């Protein structure tokens, strides 16, 4: 029973990770297109790095990386 509860909790966490990562990827897609138009926009470049860093960190925390 305890293992099932642990798995259920992990399943919810993974679903949340996938949802949040999907939102970040959608934003990254938009930002990368904008960066092509504005390659000198350092603030935008920083936002892009933060998005990738967030996904990388979360996936590592969950043991997916």
UniProtKB/TrEMBL annotation:
PROSITE patterns the UniProt entry points to: HPT
Task: Name its GO BP terms in alphabetical order.
Answer: phosphorelay signal transduction system
**Coiled-coil residues:** none
Q: Where is the HPt domain?
A: 6-65
UniProt name for this protein: HPt domain-containing protein
Species for this entry: marine sediment metagenome
């Amino acid at each position: 029973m305890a293992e099932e509860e642990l798995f259920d909790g992990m399943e919810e966490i993974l679903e949340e990770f996938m949802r949040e990562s999907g939102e970040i990827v959608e934003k990254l897609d938009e930002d990368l297109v904008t960066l092509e138009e504005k390659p000198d926009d350092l603030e935008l470049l920083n936002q892009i790095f933060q998005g990738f860093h967030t996904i990388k960190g979360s996936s590592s925390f969950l043991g997916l990386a």
